[in-house]
Each structure stands twice: as C-alpha cells, then as structure tokens.
Specification:
It is built from seven helices and two strands; from the N terminus they run H-H-H-H-E-H-H-E-H. With about 170 residues, the chain is mostly helical. Strands 1-2 form a two-stranded antiparallel ribbon.
C-alpha cells in the first residue's frame, strides 16, 4: 500500500460511471431449434422406444421378484405405460452422477425428490436395495452404478417393498 501512495496520489474527484448515455433496448430472444445446439437432435420415435423396451425387458430380472403371475402382468403393463417417463427420469439422474449410468448419489436425490426417506425407510434401507440391484455374477464386471434395466429393477423392488407388502399386511 505504501508503494501505491508514493507512485500515484489519491484521486479526490468522483468518477462518473458512464461518460455518455447508452441507448437501452430490450432484446427478446426466441428459441429456434434449427440454429441451436439441438439442431440435429432427434426425438425418440415409437420404433426406437419399442427397441429400448424390448432390450430393457430382456435385460431385467424384475418380474421374477413379483411371484404372482397376475401381478406380473399388471406390473409389466404399468412399466410399459410409464416407460417413456421412467426413461427420462433415468437420463436425468444419470446426468447428475455418472452418465450413462445412475450412481448412488443420483438415486438418493430421486428419493429426496419423491420424499421417500423416512424413519421407517431410512437411506440405508434404500442403499441395500441399490447394492442388490447392481450385483452381477461376474465380480470383475461389478460397478457402483446401475444401467437402465437395473434402475427399473430397483424401482420395482422399492415399489414391491413399500406398497405391495403394505397391502398384504392390511389384507
């Protein structure tokens, strides 16, 4: 600070922020897909969604944990009807963690958004389900993240434990 005082004197007068008036105009931006970074983005077609559904169906083992054949059909129908939304949720959560897979942090943020964590269902309860859904027989291929089929299996396990078992206790 002493060096500054010796080289340059302090300024006594006020500094005007703008020496001249700048014309003020409001620029309203409009989104145009053709000129944006999304110009070559393709929306999911019915054929593509059907391919995704078929692949995910072949990869998951979700429906084995249901047991009852009538329940299995209903669960399959609910998954099929909700597939587009579930796929979007998966992509959003994967973007939060370790794209193209969902990590535990992304899954826990989903639990918070859905307000599922409670005294009856603490985070450790969900963590056990997360770990169970990503297990594979080949120990060299184990990951700490889940792919889309494993993510759907995880949702199925949670729904079964939280809703199906509660209904069994009530009846």
């Amino acid at each position: 600070m002493e060096l500054f005082r010796t080289v340059v004197d302090y300024r006594d007068e006020d500094i005007t922020p703008w020496p001249k008036n700048v014309p003020h105009r409001v620029h309203v931006r409009e989104f145009e897909k053709s000129t944006s970074v999304f110009a070559h983005w393709r929306l999911d077609s019915e054929r593509f969604m059907e391919e995704c559904w078929s692949y995910d169906r072949s990869q998951r083992k979700t429906l084995r944990c249901v047991g009852d054949p009538d329940e299995t059909e209903r669960v399959e129908q609910v998954f099929r009807e909700s597939f587009f939304v579930l796929k979007e949720i998966f992509i959003e959560k994967a973007a939060e963690t370790n794209y193209p897979k969902v990590g535990r942090a992304g899954f826990e943020s989903l639990l918070v958004q859905l307000d599922l964590i409670s005294k009856q269902y603490p985070v450790n309860y969900f963590a056990a389900h997360f770990d169970a859904s990503i297990q594979t027989d080949d120990k060299s291929k184990r990951s700490r993240n889940c792919n889309r089929a494993q993510f759907f299996e995880l949702l199925m396990r949670l729904a079964r434990d939280k809703y199906y078992n509660i209904l069994k206790e009530v009846n």
